[in-house]
Each structure stands twice: as structure tokens, then as C-alpha cells.
Amino acid sequence: MSLLVKICGLSDKLHVEAAINAGAGAVGFVFAESVRKIAPDRANLICVNVPQHIKRVAVMLHPSNDDWQEVLESFAPDVLQTDADDFAALEVPESVERWPVYREGQASPATAGAYVYEGRQSGQGETVDWTAAARHAGNGRMILAGGLDAQNVAAAVTTVRPFGVDVSTAVETAPGQKDLILIDKFVSAALVAERNL
Fold first, then answer.
1. Sorting pLDDT into bands at 50, 70 and 90, what band is 126?
2. Helical residues (DSSP H) of the chain, grouped into ranges
3. Which of 74, 121, 158, 189 is the most exposed place for a label (fewest CB within 10 A)?
4. Mode of pairing for the β-strands spanning 164-167 and 79-83
5. What's the whole-number average pLDDT of the chain?
6. Is the dihedral of CA 87, 96, 99, 40 positive or negative?
7. What distance in Å separates the CA atoms of residue 95 and residue 76, rounded to the nearest whole number?
8. Is 102 strand, coil or helix?
């Protein structure tokens, strides 16, 4: 199976299309407080033409169940991504995949499914220790996040051997401002690295 590349923090239809055309397998939309926050109905609007095989990911952080239900109703994501501990308080239908976030320095990931492994704070471009991440990569399907960019993603893929990689900050020219060229460069670098494994 090829490496899953997720472009996160999207808010513009052009950038969603650029991610998909470059070869990304997942597009992420932030519904937590952030410069990248988007309204659920807006996210739904810019995803109208997203092919079914591309995962549309709702990215949240400690949401109330009411907040989550609003996203579920308005956006109908394929995946909910939020901190691992959050899921206990949320009603998530079987039709929605769960991608728990495990943060560096916390408990080891405890799932056979996909999960996101990142730094202590989301969206800060904080690079995790790849050697430590590699030790966890055999647990479930790790999607490596935090501090990845077009220059270092090949080394990260080679070192960690993750199921997927996730980027937001490094494909922006300013906070929340995605760039078509940077998206393409990141996805290409990640997929080339995987082919060279």
C-alpha cells in the first residue's frame, strides 16, 4: 500500500484540488481554535468534487459532543482526528474512521488502526524525534506529523517508515495561507521517498 499523504488545514477549493492532483490521499479541515479554523458548511462546500477514495478528515481538539455533532451533520467527514482521550466523550458513528492523536512524550499509541503521532502542540511545526517515532511505528498505522516539509520528509519516511505523513505549516507562505507549489513539492517528495524504500 502506498504512503498516505495528508494535507491539513485547508480552507480553499484550489488548495484541496492541488493536494488531490499532487497525489495526497487525505485532506484535513481544522474545526478547533486556530488560524486555520474553517466552518463545517464551508468545508463541505469546497469538498463537493473530492473523489470518494480521498479521505476528508475533521481535525478537532477536545471538542464537546455538541461541537462534534455539528461538524458531523454539516460536513459528514470520513475521519475524525482528535486527541486519543477525547473519543470517550464523543458519539462517533461506525461510518466515520477514528484517528486518535498521540503526542510525543505521552503514552505509547494503543491502537491497531490509523493514528496521528505528533509534537506536544498541534499546528506549530514542531518536529518529533524520528528515532523515538520509529519505535512506535510498528503499533498500528502511524501517520507522522509535526515539522515535516519538502526538504526533510524523505528522511522522515526512510527513518520512521510510517503508514502516512501529515503536513500543514510547511506548505504555507504565512499562517493559514496554503501555497500550491509547496503542496505539490511536499506530496511529490513524500511519494518519491516511499518508492525508494
1. confident
2. 13-22, 40-46, 65-75, 130-136, 153-160, 180-195
3. 121
4. unpaired
5. 94
6. negative
7. 10
8. strand
Please tell me what DSSP assigns to residue 24.
-
Task: Say if residue 120's pLDDT is above 90.
Answer: no
CA distances from 143 to 43, 91, 180, 183 (A): 22, 23, 22, 17
User: What is the dihedral angle through the alpha carbons of 13, 15, 17, 22, rounded to the nearest 10 degrees?
Assistant: 180
Residue 1 has pLDDT above 80, yes or no: no
- Is the pLDDT at 90 greater than 70, yes or no? yes
Cα–Cα distance measured from residue 33 to residue 41, given in angstroms and rounded to the nearest whole number:
16
pLDDT digits (tens, 9 = 90+) for 151-196: 999 999 999 999 999 999 999 999 999 999 999 999 999 999 999 8
Q: What is the CATH number of the domain that holds 120?
A: 3.20.20.70
The domain total for the chain is 1
C-alpha cell at 176: 493559514
Encoded amino acid at 1, one letter: M
User: What gap in Å lies between CA 152 and CA 189, rounded to an integer?
Assistant: 9
Residue 138: the pLDDT is 84
Nearest in space to 114 (alpha carbons), one of 81, 147, 87, 161:
81
Question: 150 is in which domain, residue-wise?
Answer: 4-195
What's the average model confidence in pLDDT over 139-145?
93
pLDDT of residue 124: 64
Give residue 92's pLDDT: 98
